[in-house]
Structures are given as structure tokens and as C-alpha cells.
Amino acid sequence: MSTSFAIVMPVFNEGENLQKHLSQLRAIIGPSVPVYVVDGGSTDRSWAILNSLTSADPSLHVLSSGKGRAVQMNAGALAALQTSVSHLLFLHADTVMSAQAWQSLLKCLTYSTLAWGRFDVQIEGRSGWLPVVAWMMNQRSRLTRISTGDQGIFMHRSLFERVGGYVNQPLMEDIEISRALKRQRDAVFLAIRERLITSGRRWDEQGAWSTIVLMWHLRFRYWRGDSASALLDRYRDVRARKKTP
Questions:
Q1: pTM of the full structure
Q2: Which end of the chain is more exposed for a tag (fewer CB within 10 A), N or C?
């Protein structure tokens, strides 16, 4: 069975590095792999930059949707599924893929096409805690089969259709789709050890240790049954207090 990919990338105010990241990605995946970039109402130059790139890249498809990664990724996936692609890869705009990671993914899927999974991740930033954070993310995901969006979630198109895509909620959409995919008994989970490099700006801006504590606190509350909306209010409240002099 042949394997073909479409990459779906949600974007919100990523104009500063958007062109560089898309150019790096295109150099690795080649000219024919379609990339669906979905802007969630950016207020910077993201939309203008994206549209300026389409003339030179016919495999780049630019869409707009409501704000929110779940909404944006579903919009991109639905557009991609109008074609004959067999697999979807959801990649954040501030995540960099290496040629080794891409080739490892293609190789893995030659042995198991009805699969879903993620990559290991490396977090790039100033804090000395970031290698620890990345190690914990990778090990936890390998044990639980719960993936984060930073790790680049991929899946066969039929699995996306079976689970109904991402649940439309403001946080923890990656946890929900991982849970749904885990329930597909004929699906194979792949934890690819090649690393994606993702931005550590969240940890740098808000403080590494306080961000670690906050994220684990939110995950624990979500596991206990708190809604994603309630967790978002908590997350916003913490960020607002940090910005207050």
C-alpha cells in the first residue's frame, strides 16, 4: 500500500518566523507533499506572508478559520481529505522537522500503515530545565500513548475519520484525540525516537519551573474531570498575574 502525506499546520501570529519555517519544511519533504496552513485570525503579517508564498509553492494551501488549534486542524484536515492522501501529520508552526525524522516516519509506515503516533521532541530555549521537560514528555508519552501537539501527531486518514477529528475545545485537544485513537484496537501506535525541535519560548517567557508546575497542575485537573474551558480560565489567570508589575 502506498503512503502519501498531507501536513496540517495551525497558525496564529507566527509571522516573524513563518516564512523561514515553511521554507525549511519544504526543503525536507519535497515539492509535492501538500501543506495546509490554517490561519486562526492572526493580527500580525501571517496572512499576508502566507498568501505571498503560494505563488511560488503550488503545494502550499492557505486557509482561514476560527481561532483555536482544534478548529484550525480540523479545517485543514477536511481540506486535505478531499484528496487521495493516506496520512495526516499535524505540525505546529514553531516546530522544526529534520530530514532524519521525516525519513524515519516514512520508513515506519512501510511496515504499518494503519498507524498513528508522534515523534520525540527537543525543546529549544534558554532554560536549563528544558532538556528535562522534553525527556519527561517523551517518556510519559511512550508509556501512556498520550501525545502532545508539540510532538507532531500523525495518523492514517481512516483513523482521523473514525474518531471524528479533534474535539472542539480550547485546551487538551491533543489528549482527547490520543484517547480516542487508543481505543481503535486495530491501530498501531508509533513512538518515533527521531526528535522534532520545538520552541521553548513559553517556558522562557513565563519561567521554566513555574510553567512545568502549571502544566502538570492543568493536566491533573483535566484527568480529574475539569472542563477544558475551566482550565483555560485558570491558564489565562496565571498568565495575567505574571504580566502584572
A1: 0.90
A2: C
Q: Strand 60-64 vs strand 35-39: parallel, antiparallel, or unpaired?
A: parallel
Lowest-confidence pick of 14-28, 148-162, 166-180, 224-238: 224-238
pLDDT digits (tens, 9 = 90+) for 232-243: 776 665 444 444
What's at 243, amino acid-wise? K
Domain boundaries, the chain: 5-121+140-197
Task: Give dist(CA 73, CA 71) in Å, integer.
Answer: 6
H and E: helices and strands count for the chain = 10, 8
Write out the three cell numbers for 119. Answer: 515523534
In CATH, which superfamily holds the domain spanning 5-121+140-197? Spore Coat Polysaccharide Biosynthesis Protein SpsA; Chain A (3.90.550.10)
| 198 to 150, 152, 174, 231: CA distances (angstroms) | 7, 10, 16, 23
Q: Where are the alpha helices (DSSP H) in 3-85?
A: 15-29, 46-54, 69-80
The pLDDT tens digits for 122-146 are 999 888 889 998 999 999 999 999 9
**Residue from 90, 110, 105, 98 nearest 3 by CA:** 110
